[in-house]
Amino acid sequence: MCGIFGELCVVGADHERRAFAETAAFALRHRGPDGSGLWQDDHCQLGHQRLSIIDLSTRAAQPMLSASRRSHLVFNGEIYNYLELRSRIDPPVGGFRSTSDSEVLLELLDQRGLAALQETIGMFAIALWRPADGELWLIRDRLGKKPLYWARTRDGRLRFASELGAVLADGAVARETTLDRLAEYLQLGYVAAPRSGIVAVQAVPPGHVLRARVASGKITERLERWWDLPPPTSARKFRNSNEFNECFDATLRNAVEIRMRSDVPLGAFLSGGIDSSVISLLSAQAIPGKLKTFTVDFDEAGWSEGPFAAEVARHIGAEHESLRLSSGSLSSLGDLASIYGDLHGDSSAIPTVALCRAARERVTVAVAGDGGDELLGGYTRYASTLATAEIARRVPAPALAVARRLAGRRPMAWVRGATRVARLFGDPDQLYPLEMRAYVGQAWPMVLSSSGSEPWRDPVGDALRQQRGRPPLFRLMACDAKTYLPEDILVKVDRASMAFGLEVRAPLLDHRLFELVMQAAPEWLASNEGPKRPLRQLFGARLPSAVFRRAKMGFGVPLVDWLRRDPSQTRALLDRAAPVAGVLNRAAVRRLLLSHHLGLRDESLRIWRLLMLAAWFELWRPNVTDARR
Questions:
Q1: Which of 31, 329, 514, 566 is the most buried (most CB within 10 A)?
Q2: Cα torsion for 534, 539, 545, 551, to the nearest 10°?
Q3: Do 263 and 125 fall within a single domain?
Q4: Does 27 share its domain with 75?
Q5: β-bridge mates for residue 195, sequence order
């Protein structure tokens, strides 16, 4: 687990390279506190900040050169099945120099090219330079666990880094954003790949490789997909749910087992919910000694999962620690903006950052239950969306037409979820994107001072349309696996953990599990008892019954109470001198704040995104245009 950066140029002046290398390494030092490395030739520069997890010796340091001397690698992440891969490839001349997964990955790509990626199980962002071909490969893992940004500088160089801040650090990339990006962020809480909050900076999408080539005095690039979820036409390989559960169980156990490979202390995040409890149980069985588990707790009624987590920890024999948070955590908005770099509007970043900071004092690697909802249909919004769509199919056409007209009226924008009438569209392509928006009845959030010349791009709607042919539940799950999961959940965990040099591994994000589930029948995932049927059937008798009986609780914070308790946190949103002031409609923002503080409506989601937008503008001070780019 590390931070990587680099640059490709036709002709690079030494002082320009040196300036970028110094600023990028400094910007990424938190991702790799255990060492740093830099290599360059006439066209390419590769940099690495190391967090030592597998093979702590200098033999595993990067950048790394292949035995054939054809390939140079920097790599962020883990290849969990590296031991199995090592036994299946031709050993380099003179034998392997290290026991690291990095060297195995390098030799695998050097010998077999991009096709070798299909054999890997892991999370990764990879940069591989092949001087003889003049080609740089920028590769991102299947589900987007590890980040990878790239940009063109003002003078035409192509650079990449693990975080947006490293790309922007030396000022060679223009800091400009657009209104449609701000609208997308305020609606969804993120700007989806391949875009970022900054026009000049792009993200390599999950399951893609950017191939950049230096030839004939110029740099060209093309983006290629190397992995995707199985298509809807894939033949089902299981005759019944028992066969599916048996295969799912074996795959999950292997996913946990290979993620226990570590040369540093390992723990687990435990909330007491289904996903984290199952992963903690399997992890405790897979390591010698007691598993260290960590949870976050609150004083506010209805938010505390501490007792549930403690009960599971006792049941599995773990050594448990609980961290209590209060509204004082809201005082670090600037720190959060710096940690996340790009636009990120999920308030559960607060407990995630606090949990990672506390866990890093005890362990260097933590396993977590992330991905279980997208994998096994766990979000309550899936059931509500499908139920509403079913109701809509029974509504007479004239009444449905009236509902659609009402849904676009301005007052509806202030009542997220207050009435299902606003969502009676029938078609999930229209219904689910509304479920994911903060401003249901408006294309442009009313808090922006103006709308752009073109509508903002809706990645949720785009992803849903690409999943046609799947059963309705699987369409929603696949949509989230391509949008909400990589753009919100995985960003939240990666930046929070790496801010403190902590590696987080998520067995439920093993791509083999996603490929299995997409070949299952929807009824195998849910029953009258609730979603995640495989986990209920496989582990129901091996964990406390409360794990499976209690209502689902999201990993969030009591933000609605915190914001009302301390209104001073929101005053900056009305400051005419703030960098964000030029893009906000002060009157609309004032109405939003007043409505929340008087207790008329819960506006905490929209307010939090505005607070993080203001902190982001303070951090980067971007120029704003209305052109969609």
A1: 31
A2: -30
A3: no
A4: yes
A5: 202
Q: How far apart are CA 259 and CA 256, in angstroms?
A: 5
Co-location of 44 and 146 in the same domain: yes
User: Which residue, chain included where needed, has tokens 């599916």?
Assistant: 244
| Whether 331 and 351 share a structural domain | yes
Q: How many domains does the chain have?
A: 2
Report whether pLDDT(39) > 60.
Answer: yes
> Among candidates 77, 65, 82, which has minimal Cα distance to 129?
65
The domain of 481 spans 229-555
- The answer to whether 124 touches 146, Cβ cutoff 8 Å, is yes
pLDDT of residue 341: 96
pLDDT band at 414 (very low <50, low <70, confident <90, very high): very low
Cβ(110)–Cβ(70) under 8 Å? yes
- The residue with greater pLDDT, 279 or 19, is 279
The CATH number assigned to the domain holding 478 equals: 3.40.50.620
Alpha carbon separation from 236 to 230, 518, 527, 624 (Å, rounded): 11, 9, 20, 49
pLDDT of residue 583: 95
Domain assignment present for residue 628? The answer is: no
pLDDT at 404 over 70: no
* Residue finishing a domain among 539, 555, 571: 555
Is residue 204 domain-shared with residue 188, that is, in the same domain? yes
What span, in angstroms and rounded, lies between the C-alpha atoms of 338 and 172?
19
Q: Which residue has the tokens 């849910």?
A: 526
Dist CA 371 CA 509 (whole Å): 5
What is the identity of the amino acid at 429?
D
pLDDT value, residue 330:
61
Cα dist. 259→34, 102, 253, 317 in Å?
21, 15, 10, 20
25 within a domain of the structure (yes/no) = yes
The answer on 249 and 188 residing in a single domain is no
Q: How far apart are CA 347 and CA 330, in angstroms?
A: 10
Helices (H), 10-153: 14-27, 82-86, 101-112
The answer to whether position 612 is within a domain reads no
Token code pair at residue 512: 């083999």
- Give the end of a domain, one of 177, 192, 225: 225
> Residue 603 corresponds to which tokens in the numbers above?
């506006």
